[in-house]
Amino acid sequence: MSATTARSWFSSTTGSRRPGSRRDSRDAPQKWGSPFTYFVALLFIGVCIAPVIYIVLGGFRTNSQITKSPAGLPHPWITANYINVLKSNRFWGEFANSVLVALASTVGIVVLGLMVSFVIARYDFKLKGAMYSLFAAGLMFPMVIAITPLYIVIKDLGLIDNLLGVIVPQIAFGLPTTVIILVPFLRAIPNEIEEAAAIDGTSRLGFFVRMVIPLSLPGVVTVSILSFIGSWNNYVLPLYILNSQANFTLPLGVQAFSSQYSTDTAKVLAFTSLAMLPALVFFSIFEKRIVGGLTGAVKG
């Protein structure tokens, strides 16, 4: 049985069971909500977007423009700040470090989290519930709380001022969220698919690779995006672990750059804009994937 056949069978058995209800929901007129709700939503959106817009536009201004009119628009528009940042080796070195850390952390979180979730969702063994509860409890302990003992452990491992000292803890602290999201996806896969695959001579490893991964792809994409963005924006852990500027990630680079060029506000805003741009673009492109993946996890 191929993954495509399994997906089509899974969709036919779980979806479109009541076609009439879906058609009726489309034909029914949609009611507008309360104006107060829309006002609060727009206010919240404005509070979130306004600082980003200010930082981006500030990079196109001069220091004199910012001093005379802090909330004004660029006049004229200055691109020198962005060009100077893009020409610097410092920015691209920190960008490469952030990409390396984010990709390595994401791969580790997804691979290990998918394997753990598969065992919890599809196998029956003692302390299964306790293991799942342990991962759920991990959501209540953010990295900031454990930063001091974590620093001691990383120091004993000799990973201070090493990118591995950031990657390994990020994988560990990213597993609870991954397991909580993926387990419902894997539990929702019908046992009939696994039985049919076993009849065809597929091993459990083959079933995992050929069936489980394709069927749980929405959840995998969701945890991948969340892990990448979380790793990209992580500031506290690199602050404790990384000492040399050559190993700095972009969040640390922004802090160091703003301290070095504290009098050049426009240049600092340009550097900050370019540092946060990849995460914003990445999140904007895959926003629907995140919502769809989390919805599937809740339904499962």
TrEMBL record:
Q: Which InterPro entries does its entry note?
A: MetI-like, MetI-like_sf
The places in or outside the cell where this protein is found are: Cell membrane
Bilayer topology annotation: Multi-pass membrane protein
Instruction: Locate the coiled-coil region(s) and give their ranges.
Output: none
GO cellular component, as recorded: plasma membrane
What stretches pass through the bilayer?
Answer: 36-57, 95-120, 132-154, 166-186, 207-229, 268-286
User: Where are the compositionally biased (Polar residues) regions?
Assistant: 1-10
Q: Which Gene3D superfamilies is this protein grouped with?
A: MetI-like (1.10.3720.10)
Q: One Pfam family, short name please?
A: BPD_transp_1
Region: Disordered; residue ranges are 1-28
Q: Name one GO biological process term.
A: transmembrane transport
Which keywords are on file for this protein?
A: Cell membrane, Membrane, Transmembrane, Transmembrane helix, Transport
- Domain ABC transmembrane type-1: residue ranges: 95-286
* Family in the record: Belongs to the binding-protein-dependent transport system permease family.
Q: What is this protein called?
A: Carbohydrate ABC transporter membrane protein 2, CUT1 family
